[in-house]
Amino acid sequence: MSHELHPRFWRRVRLDELRPTQISVGMAEIRAKRKEWAELDKHERRDRLEQHVFPAVVGPKKRCYIVDHHHLSLALMDEGVEEVAVAVLDDLSRLEREIFWRVMEFRAWCHPYDAAGQRRDYTAIPKCLRDLKDDPYRSLAAFVRNAGGFAKVHQPFAEFLWADYFRSRTSLRSLSSFSKKVVRSGVELAQHRDASYLPGWSGEVEYLAGRQG
Question: Under 8 Å CB-to-CB from 45, ≥6 apart: which residues?
Fold first, then answer.
């Protein structure tokens, strides 16, 4: 994710003390990250933790709000990791709560949309990571991206835009299991010209070739 400011300082923070800046996550994606973590040996886990720095903003009452890696945070919590390295992007603790969230949204550091893709009030953002809601379409977006359906970009919350795209084109029933068939169908949808407005769209060459033909 691309951030507006350079980190001011790093520190270590307990995962259960981190505050989220979104309402939902993809629980299936979290399970996939847990499986990946479980397959690493202790040296690989140590290296991963040393390489991952969680970007955050200091908010009201000096609480630490992460602006990325919500899925990884929950996966690590479930795997028994207690703390991570945090890079503080800015200290907005002096702001009133409502102004704080307005600034966060203006800087693309929060995503106040629920698991149905609907805009909600800032008060709907949970106070702890464990209370994040499951949006299966967010998991589908991650699996489609990993399968090459679209490119990973540095724009904040890009996968949520893809989740909304899939939401109107894929039945919720089909997401009871993220089979290869479901992901393959998602890749085809992602490469359609209807998705050309989305960040990371990779169907442009095929689309242009089709127009020229």
Answer: 37
